[in-house]
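queue> pop job 88
queue> type: inverse folding (structure -> sequence)
queue> payload:
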């Protein structure tokens, strides 16, 4: 056998995913020099160049792609074997790497993760909290939770629920502003915007029966962290359009008040995303089933929100 070290194949796989040796080295916890040595050793053993190198990125050669496909499958088979061994032990083992939006993580996922870890003491959870869309194929995560529509053929997406964006504000804000009776009146209010695609999203759309109204809202602040936007709203800074999942505790406590309840915004699907090309260990499958059950219960509870 020409290939003597499985860790060299791991460098190949991570470099192909990340596009650079330095990123692969960070993912594997080794130095860039060690990663470069592994790749050179692998190419020497196979007698062929696996990457076309440039100053900006590394692109697989035809032979590199061939080795990558077989190496990926080999690691998947090893992971499957490990999963079967864990299943036979009747106790889940290992780390589940999760990426989730900031506010969803704080308001919803944190206690659920605690429940899951209590049920499975052999499992660890590594949580990445960000409102930017992580790439579950390239980045080091087992699953991601994302709002909005998905158009990536490399992933398997499962709808957890269809969240409802609700128009809300704090009592302290409403006490000093004129009452809101129609979406068009939002133009006179301070509206807190979230970033989509790097820009503040200020085209808010509402429906009552078959009538649609679109309003270009304005305000003195916008943010790329949804959790901070909700905190601004609770503090009385302005009106917010936020999913029922994220504001349910604030509505129940009275920290926020729902506005224009007869008008509905476009539903916003919440997906659980898995890479379609990667073997899914049993611990990840169990966590996915756990989340699906919890979100189904949450969807029923949200129907009773004020």
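queue> result:
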């Amino acid at each position: 056998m020409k290939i003597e070290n499985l860790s060299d194949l791991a460098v190949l796989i991570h470099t192909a995913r990340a596009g650079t040796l330095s990123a692969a080295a960070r993912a594997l916890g080794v130095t860039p020099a060690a990663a470069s040595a592994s790749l050179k050793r692998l190419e020497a053993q196979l007698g062929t160049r696996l990457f076309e190198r440039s100053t900006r990125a590394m692109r697989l050669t035809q032979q590199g792609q061939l080795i990558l496909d077989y190496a990926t499958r080999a690691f998947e088979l090893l992971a499957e074997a490990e999963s079967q061994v864990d299943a036979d032990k009747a106790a889940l083992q290992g780390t589940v790497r999760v990426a989730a939006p900031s506010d969803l993580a704080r308001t919803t996922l944190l206690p659920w993760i605690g429940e899951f870890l209590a049920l499975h003491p052999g499992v660890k959870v590594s949580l990445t909290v960000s409102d930017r869309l992580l790439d579950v194929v390239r980045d080091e995560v087992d699953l991601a939770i994302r709002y909005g529509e998905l158009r990536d053929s490399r992933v398997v997406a499962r709808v957890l629920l269809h969240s409802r964006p609700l128009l809300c504000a704090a009592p302290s804000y409403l006490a000093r502003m004129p009452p809101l009776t129609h979406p068009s009146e939002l133009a006179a209010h301070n509206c807190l915007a979230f970033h989509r695609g790097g820009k503040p999203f200020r085209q808010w759309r509402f429906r009552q029966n078959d009538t649609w109204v679109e309003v270009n809202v304005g305000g003195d602040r916008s943010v790329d962290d949804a959790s901070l936007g909700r905190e601004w709203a609770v503090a009385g800074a302005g009106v917010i359009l936020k999913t029922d999942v994220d504001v349910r505790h604030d509505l129940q406590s009275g920290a926020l008040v729902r506005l224009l309840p007869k008008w509905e915004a476009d539903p916003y699907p919440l997906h659980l995303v898995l890479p379609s090309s990667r073997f899914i260990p049993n611990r990840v499958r169990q966590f996915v089933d756990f989340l699906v059950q919890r979100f189904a219960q949450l969807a029923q509870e949200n129907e009773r929100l004020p």
